[in-house]
Amino acid sequence: MLLLNAIIHADPEQTVLQRIGDQAFSVVVLVGIAWILWKRQIKLEDRLTQYLDDDREKMLGVIENNTKVMERLEDALNRSNPR
């Protein structure tokens, strides 16, 4: 505290305090921007996860349908060409 008082009295124009205030403002702005970007990243991650889950579900449906078609094709071939 004594050092701060010495700085304040030694600097009547308060440029040191102004610089500290400017630095604090810059830090607050950067933290704010980082927080906004972090929130956007979380939203994008959630959207990507939902997209991947939906795509996985669709692909499993396609695989299941293709498996059924292959089974019917094999049955048809076995009926038309008995061994």
Brief descriptors of the model:
single chain, 83 residues, 2 helices, rod-shaped
Outline the structure in words.
The protein has helices at residues 2-10, 15-80. It has 83 residues and is mostly helical.
Distance between the termini: 100 Å
The average pLDDT score comes to 87
Radius of gyration: 34 Å
The portion of residues assigned to helices is over 70%
Number of helices: 2
Give me the secondary-structure category.
mainly alpha
In short:
This protein has 83 residues and is mostly helical. It is built from two helices and no strands.
Per-chain topology:
Layout: H1 2-10, H2 15-80
